[in-house]
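For the sake of transparency, this paper describes our internal protein records without simplification. Because each token names a local backbone shape, the row as a whole describes the fold. One such record is reproduced below, unchanged from the form in which we store it:
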Amino acid sequence: MSIKKMQFRPKMQGMRRFLTLFMVILLTGLVVDAPAQKKMSRKEQQAETERIEREKAAEAEREKARIERERKEESGRKWTGNGGKGMSLTILAPQSNGLAANQSHLPALVQGEFVSNFSGFSAISILDWERRDAVLVQLLSGSYSDDVSAKAAQEIGNAIPTTHFMQGNITKTETGYNLQVNITKTADKTTAASYSGTFTFAELDNLTGIRKTSLDLLQKMGVTLKEKAQQELVGAAAENYVGAQTALARGVTAQRQGTEVAALSYYFQAAAFDPSLAEAVKRSSILNANITSGNIGDNVRNDIQWRKEWVQRLTETEKFFDNFNKTESMPYTLFYSDDIKQGGINYQTETVTLSIKTLLQGSNIWKQSTEHALQAVYDGLNATKRQDTWGLGKWPQQTVTNPNPFTKQSNNFSVVFELVNKQNKVIGKQTLQASGSWEWDLRSRPGINASTTGYITMNLQNVNANDISDNLTIRIASVNGVDAASAARNGVLQIRTFSPYITDSRDGQKYHTVIIGNKMWMAENLNYQTGTSWCYGNRDPNCTKYGRLYDWYTARTACPAGWRLPTREDWDDLVRVAGGRSAGRNLKAGSPNWNGTDKFGFSALPAGFSYTNGRFDDAGTVGNWWSATGYEASYAYHRGMDSHITYVEEYTRGKALGFSVRCAKDCASCD
């Protein structure tokens, strides 16, 4: 026993010594398999600390951005709670009964506005136009059993890939238009929400009735809208929005009826009214590409068939324009000034003449969209490279149908103005006669030339001085014998007021303004002293007469808030609307030796220009105006008018020269 104990202790002691030595080696970094850890220098430690701090700061910024993003998303939401999240909805166009031909777009308009409202005012997933159309095509394709017809599928929701579907009816009644809408659960075909109400045509056409219906249905679907969102849905929609939705609905209706040129024209209009309306942009792009490619279909087998199909397309195009000429007209807007001017006084009769400025203008949006539609067909025919061989090389100058729908069209308006005093008494009345016309230029690629009577001063004569109050109101009594509201609703003539001047808040100077096309322009050269600018000849009276001259760098930011230095494209639009090659004569003021008619009230004056060496030249004979569009590093585009020419020239000159500035702004209500 004693021998065993003596043998055991040395083994245990050896093991302890081994373990102790191993730990020492491990801790001192002498173990061969574990590489030595290099001690960091002070500089490296500082760099590592800074790296960690940067990562912490970056993480903090990301968290801050996430919180801000969520805050913005929450503040941007128009509902509280989940907003109907988890539900999905297919919105079908309502059936219609008793609608007139010019009201055939109403079902598509109602459908489109429901899509917009349910998408924007809830978290409900809406089957978009493209997917919905694909579903309906599938339903109509015969893929389903005979006992499930496409009509039945629309009525009971078969094969609709959403939790709910909406259907309805619009019925013309003696008292208005009855709108009935039902939202059905797809699973069990039970009603989730319904609405029934009667509206005037105007309430449907301007979307107020559809918005009211949307609010009621959303609330019945359990969506809790914020107060501001509720007010938005019960309020009037913006004019451009209504115009875009209406044009889109007309386009969808025309495309469903197979009239692609009409559809394309409406899609162009919708996109022009609202460039953010993705559905209109997408549909116009696809349809335009289809037409301009020159191809009709995949089943074209021979040249004869190809020609027949192109003749059919040209026939459809001509019928569309012929029908338009017979039933509608280029949309016009009559603007009148809210600034009443006093004229001569008759002291014997104690009466006075008061006057206002008026302007009749055709819709630039309609003009451009109609041009684009016909140009698409023209370009498509040319893309075939067969138009001459087919005997269609002179189209549209030589049409395939009779009569020719591309002849000059005109419209005359008789507008009764009334002057009303504070006591609501009519103290003056005058009838304004105005006319507008438009015609196609078919000498090459088609374009529209439109003209109107321009600015007209309307005089209200023999107004009794004793009836004049501090506040006077101008109102429109009738247009072509119809009350102004009905005329506007029926598309005969829109009426709008405009202010003929603005005040620059920076120095208190007033500038006259004019509406030309879809822009509002200053009718005087800018005279704001800033940056590198001069009076002609360094004489103050010339600034009063002509405005200041600016180098290009200063001109870019010289305009008042809300106004801008016009781009090259803005000047192009102005010249086109003002008469093309005659624009110079029409835009120049009617002063001696300047040879202008001032047809549009633009009142361009020959202010001359300044050289970089301080010399001035050409006042009284030449006017130059900067554009915001640069050309290379040292040059920029500008427009020039000369006393001896009738057109407006475009040049590129050095940015350091001194030219005049005209400020412009987009005018959403000017079309």
Remarks:
- The longest strand covers residues 426-441.
- The mean pLDDT is 86.
